[in-house]
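Posting this for the archive.
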Amino acid sequence: MKNIITITSKGQTTLPVAARRKLGLTSAGGVLRVRFNKQQNELIISKPLDIHELGTRISRHIKPGIKPLSDVDAYYQRQRAMDV
């Protein structure tokens, strides 16, 4: 999908409806992340992950059978005891 976006004298733009739909933005608006790629001289607009998407991505890296860390202080105390 390629579109041309016009920039007003105030620096404002309108995101085309096709792009808003692909990003899942509603008429109520939303939040987008913008970054600039210097090597390609391009502006990249993306939708940040919501908490559920982030959880899904993170959970892929958790090894089965590993108990989640719930008490950081206790963890460090055990590590110090093992180093002695």
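Strands lie at 33-37, 42-46. The helical segments are 17-23, 51-59, 72-83.
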